[in-house]
Specification:
Elements (H helix, E strand, L loop, with lengths): L7 E4 L2 H5 L6 E4 L1 H15 L7 H10 L11 H15 L12 E2 L2 E2 L11 H18 L9 E6 L2 H6 L11 H4 L15 E6 L2
Parallel strand pairs: 5-6
Antiparallel strand pairs: 1-2, 3-4
Helix pairs in contact: 2-4, 4-5
Length: 195
């Protein structure tokens, strides 16, 4: 089919659990379906309202000529969405209500196995850190990053998020423009695990 599938999931009931050919009831995730077209429109308009650092990063990530490994569509969309939630104007986000949990908004991005979730994390860390380093007073950003892994194996795999590690994702995947690379060393990134 042409076009994009709506965001959602299949809910299994007892009736369709017994019928293996029945996927169950499709439940749309309306908030995601409201946000996606707005992010697409915002991108088409050239990412209005973003910082200079963010614009430079987005231009770099969208330019396949300067990247060894350009991001997959889903990786770029995940990063663009978190940037949109942070930097887009209130007018662009009008009517979007993200439920709060203990006065905190929880943002979740689901990417399939093998789509490069760690690369997305590296892109988000670079965007956050480089913006904070450029403007210490901007409270939307932080150069202090805590990454919680579900176990020791995950913790070991995430060590590539630390810029001064030999096999870091920023160099391996050409994740930031060369003129921004050294600035990442000012970020404080702690990776730990939770049992």
């Amino acid at each position: 089919e042409d076009g994009r599938r709506p965001a959602g999931y299949y809910r299994v009931s007892q009736r369709n659990a017994e019928n293996q050919g029945d996927q169950g009831e499709f439940v749309r995730i309306e908030l995601v379906n409201q946000i996606r077209p707005r992010v697409t429109d915002w991108k088409k308009r050239g990412y209005p309202n973003v910082t200079r650092i963010t614009k430079d990063l987005l231009d770099y990530w969208n330019n396949p000529d300067v990247r060894k490994f350009p991001p997959f569509f889903c990786q770029l969309e995940a990063v663009e969405t978190i940037i949109w939630l942070t930097e887009a104007s209130d007018a662009d986000k009008q009517g979007i209500v993200i439920p709060k949990d203990l006065d905190l908004e929880r943002w979740c991005f689901k990417l399939a196995t093998g789509t490069g979730k760690t690369v997305v994390m590296a892109m988000i860390i670079a965007w956050q850190s480089l913006n904070k380093i450029a403007n210490q007073l901007d409270t939307r950003f932080s150069k202090n990053i805590l990454v919680m892994a579900p176990g020791i194996t995950g913790k070991d795999r995430l060590q590539g998020l630390i810029p001064n590690n030999a096999d870091n994702f920023y160099e391996s995947f050409n994740g930031v423009p060369p003129n921004m690379w050294q600035d990442l060393f000012s970020a404080k990134i702690v990776i730990t695990n939770w049992h």
